[in-house]
Amino acid sequence: MTTLKTLADHLAAEQTADVAVKDVVAAIAKACIQISNVVASGAISGSLGAAGQVNVQDEEQKKLDIITNDILRDALKACPAVAGLASEELEEIETTGRAGGFLVTFDPLDGSSNIDVNVSVGTIFSILPAPEGREATEADFLLSGRQQVAAGYVVYGPQTMLVLTLSKGVFGFTMSAEGDWLLTHETVSINADTAEFAINMSNQRHWAEPVRRYIDDCLQGKDGPRGKNFNMRWVASMVADVHRILMRGGIFLYPWDAREPDKPGKLRLLYEANPMALIVERAGGKATDGKTAILDLQPTRLHQRVPVVLGSANEVDLVSA
Ligand code: P6P
What we know:
- The chain is α+β, with helices and mostly antiparallel strands.
- The protein contains 7 helices and 17 strands.
- Residues 110-111, 113, 200, 236-238, 254, 266-267 line the site of 6-O-phosphono-alpha-D-fructofuranose (P6P).
């Protein structure tokens, strides 16, 4: 019999968050248990492989992208506190006909290129206030990250973990064999310094000078300007890379690069960068677009992309310098 608190205990004890936002978190957390089970079933359930269509991002959709999107969409539409949703996998927003409550943006299965090779993937979500007295429109989703009332992710890895921030602090819950979320990490925080960076090195020749210089300095190791050796990791699932940084420090970079100069970056602001930036800042880290705090950016389009540099605060400052 565990003595660990459950997510329900934690939400009940949370005094400052709006009761209704707790209902939204509980609905998402329940849906992610279902997602964890379908992801874990893999080839057994026939859920691996391509879906044979591309999404609004012009990316090949996996069957699990669609399955997990439907699970979350159904759970949110059934939650009375949800007024609308936006997903990486849906071109348009969807409203529930309800006024007030909350808007949810999400990436149902981040890192889906890793699914078929059994590498960690995740769900990312952001909860925003909905307009009062009327149905939500797309413009209502275009709020800066500082206006998020909650954010979180679930990483489907060796453990399935939910990492969540409501009014303050960052908390980690591990999914039990019985399908409960148990509070296992009460004070998640990121060390201000690190010797580990995460970036897709194959793009090195396409980076802008500040990023190239920063990585070059790290690669020169203890005989170079940093005076210490660096390690590198790149999972190619933002959730897995960010989770590692929350657990042991580090810096994650997905910067602008010259491959598609008109594209500001690969990651999406509303349902990847903003939720992760809120979590990272609440854990004592920093998250910028290379210059400006991600949370201070004013969104202009639902699926807009942004460069991302996040993690150990002192390291992020060096990239922005
Ligand atoms: P690349 C996954 O597709 C994703 O959106 C993030 O989760 C991840 O950090 C990034 O793209 C990986 O991109 O170019 O290395 O495959």
